[in-house]
Amino acid sequence: GQQLNQSPQSMFIQEGEDVSMNCTSSSIFNTWLWYKQDPGEGPVLLIALYKAGELTSNGRLTAQFGITRKDSFLNISASIPSDVGIYFCAGQMLNTGANSKLTFGKGITLSVRP
Amino acid sequence: EAGVTQSPTHLIKTRGQQATLRCSPISGHTSVYWYQQALGLGLQFLLWYDEGEERNRGNFPPRFSGRQFPNYSSELNVNALELEDSALYLCASSPGGGQPQHFGDGTRLSIL
After folding, report:
1. Most buried of A14, B3, B83, B90, CB within 10 angstroms?
2. Residue A24 and residue A71 in contact, taking contact as beta carbons nearer than 8 Å
3. Tell me: the pLDDT tens digits for A22-44?
């Protein structure tokens, strides 16, 4: 099935650095979401975006809904060791009847060196 | 507020057997979604239930089925298990109306 594009598969950064992740799609979505998954746990919602061009922050996290509705990015500032995990983007087409499912990227594994 | 709960945490089956996975949504959430997270394949949408009805299903064979009960909890049934069904099965719930989905910690299904 369709999947969003997230790359690279892994990122390695130094504690205190900022990191940016991008997610692209060949189709448009009217909602973009970012989730983080720790080992042995389910994905946890970080940020939800509902409008093209929207920029939303959640603490040290900032995400944007691309103007074309085909992409989104997530920025983490001043990274800390607990930022380690897998970051997934997900797109959704709401208000389209049967299409309330989430379409996910394959995720980016973030490692933070102390 | 309790989150989405799934049971069992782990399930070990052999080929050809049947598996039943359970999910209790967040209180007040009427929609339940099931996803399969297999190694190397990411999260793939399986099924969506809302108000007791199946609203949409992903690209999976009919041996993947489920239901939603009047209290909005849900069951995922997988018949005639195959080795490639080994995966983490995640349940998510939402209150509908465009609100985001929240996930449980999943059931790890292993097929021997």
Report:
1. B90
2. yes
3. 999 999 999 999 999 999 899 99
